[in-house]
Specification:
Blueprint (H helix, E strand, L loop, with lengths): L1 H18 L6 E6 L6 E6 L17 E6 L5 E8 L3 E3 L2 E3 L22 E8 L4 E7 L8 E6 L2 E2 L4 E3 L12 E4 L4 E5 L2 H5 L2 H4 L14 H9 L15 E4 L3 E6 L2
Parallel strand pairs: 1-15
Antiparallel strand pairs: 1-3, 2-4, 4-7, 5-6, 7-8, 8-14, 9-11, 9-15, 10-14, 12-13
């Protein structure tokens, strides 16, 4: 009788293990900057806003939350220099229309961006990359944990505010400090730099001296609209993806 009960228990355990779903993917945002930042998240069309799209994150703290269990894509960035004034919330960089919780709205350039496409393909891929196409405001990396396949740490660890060319500098209150580094497109608005109209193809959209400034400092990032697709990495079934600011 005891042997039968043991066999039944073992069978139940094996069945449970066989049918158990894999552990949920965790998304973690880490603030290693020596000041408060306001991370923001914008989903692509048709996907839900995560964490209502934005929150405050004090220095040397982090916030973790589960990713959607199905396919999700979107972008993360950080806002800096945020404050309430006359009943209105605003940020020096990355502002999403005066909202603390961006709730689906995009951010103002310049801002360093992390781009994600989660839970896709036959091997539960999560793709990720870091983009300076919209300029730079903070160092940022994406670090995967426990994935299989192509799972490198990518991003931009350099503080490009210190070396940003004069024509790309964005200065903020109260003392005119450099708070962002614009893209060539944002600074000059030409079709060639913005990869618009005739220049909107991989054959005609080329690197510029401005995108090369970003690429030289941070080679593992996208720096113009038709930059190499190989900069987007496919990691199979990671346990966690960390977005780290000021690594």
């Amino acid at each position: 009788m005891a042997t039968s009960l043991f066999s039944l228990s073992l069978l139940l355990i094996l069945c449970t293990l066989a049918t158990a779903s894999p552990p949920a993917l965790i998304l973690t945002v880490v603030n290693n900057c020596p000041f408060t930042i306001w991370p923001a998240i914008q989903p692509n069309a048709g996907h839900p806003a995560l964490e209502r799209g934005g929150f405050a994150l004090s220095t040397l703290t982090h916030r973790s939350f589960p990713a959607p269990s199905g396919h999700w894509s979107g972008r993360f960035w950080a806002r800096t220099g945020c404050s309430y004034s006359h009943g209105r919330f605003s940020c020096a960089t990355g502002d999403c229309g005066g909202r603390l919780e961006c709730d689906g709205h995009g951010g103002a350039a310049p801002a360093t961006l992390a781009q994600f496409s989660l839970h896709h393909g036959h091997a539960d891929f999560s793709s990720y990359g870091v983009s300076l196409v919209d300029g730079f405001n903070l160092p940022m990396t994406v670090t995967p944990h426990e994935g299989k396949g192509q799972c490198p740490v990518v991003g931009c660890r350099a503080d490009l505010l210190a070396t940003c060319p004069h024509a790309l500098q964005v200065r903020g209150p109260p003392h005119g400090a450099i708070v962002g580094c614009k893209s060539g497109c944002a600074a000059f608005g030409t079709d060639e730099l913005c990869c618009r109209n005739h220049y909107n193809s991989p054959q005609t959209c080329k690197a510029s001296s401005y995108s090369e400034f970003f690429k030289h400092a941070c080679p593992a990032t996208f720096t113009y609209a038709h930059d190499s697709p190989s900069l987007m990495h496919e990691c199979s079934a990671p346990r966690e993806l960390k977005v780290i600011f000021c690594h």
